[in-house]
Prior knowledge:
This protein has about 400 residues and is α+β, with helices and mostly antiparallel strands. It has nine helices and 13 strands. The chain has a domain at about 145-260. The chain has helices at about 5-30, 40-95, 100-125, 190-205, 280-285, 290-305, 305-360, 365-390, 395; strands at about 125, 130, 145, 150-155, 170-175, 180-185, 215, 220-225, 235, 240-245, 250-260, 265-270, 275. It has a four-stranded antiparallel sheet. A hairpin with a 5-residue loop joins β7 (about 215) and β8 (about 220-225). The protein is elongated and about 115 Å long.
Amino acid sequence: MRVTTMMPDVQYEMQQAQQALATATQQLSTGLRVNQPSDDPAAAAEMVQSLASSARVDQYTSNITAALSQMQTADSAIASMVSYMNRAITIGTASANQIESAGDQQAAANEVAGILSGVVALGNTNFQGRFVFGGSETSINPFAPASTSYTLAAGSGPVSASTALTAGSLTTISDASTGKTFTFKAAAGDTIATLQSAIASAASSGTLNSTLTATINASGQLEISTSSANAGVVVTSTDPTLTASAVTGTAVANSYAYVGNSTVNQVQVGDPTLIDANIPGDQLLGSGTGVLSSLSGLISALQSGSTSQITTATSAVSAALTKLDQTRVPLDNNMNRLNAQESFLNQEKLSLSSRQNSLVGISTAEAATNLSQAELTNNTVLAAAAKVLPQTLLDYLK
């Protein structure tokens, strides 16, 4: 006798019903229609791309948050600089338009000197461990007191014209009087004599003040100095065999040099949107605006007591203030661009989230309906199986 059994078909139906029930239960508990790629391969693939887009949006939003905080700090510092400059103009105007005693003139000069110190302190504004006006050099004060004389000394003994420099090392001279910076990068075979020649060329071209010289002194040090009492420099070197230091007693009153760099840092806030996030200090207070030199000039004019000199110096401060305001404009514009981009990214985030939900999400009502249907189907299959499964070969052999 041939016995036909329905067990494989019934078992398959039971497995399918139980799998559907498990899927419906998971959908209701997670709120997701697609919990694994096999649930909907096409939706899962698109979901991967959408999540990558969301990650980029999150990174750009984070970049904006960090950049805005730093730029707002910079903008606040510049606003305070503007207030200082306006006060200096008021002092200069009042001193030029009235007869003052020597004591009053010195008091006015002292106040402007305090203003200059305050502006420099703002130029060295630090935000979360980074100096905001240093260009890409954010680890040191961008503005440093200048001296008329610096020495470069070798730790192993005196230097000579033939002393070799370390290839790739940088020697930098920031000049307070010109507002410019000279940087010498040593090549293989370069010596102290090579550096001396380069410094002489920079002084001739106007990058450094014309009185600056580099000579080997009696102590066997390379002495970089200027004969102008009102001109100061700041010298640094990355050469491991040389140490740069200001000569004691040669600091120039009310003279500061910019020792950062001119790099404009950019922040990526979109594909492929880049926005400038800083103003280098040389553009802000140095040769770009003449803020530091104009304030220093006003101090000297007030000390001289000459009405005409005070008037001229005050006009220079006013011109520097105008340039400072102009320098500030791109920063404010970029902050507005960042705010607009942040709003766009927030909307993009919502759109992506909505799309992701439509790809893999499921409403509670739909999930509950699916679960109810899956339970009904499973119960029906179990009831049918209960009638079919007992009819096995053993039943027929009885």
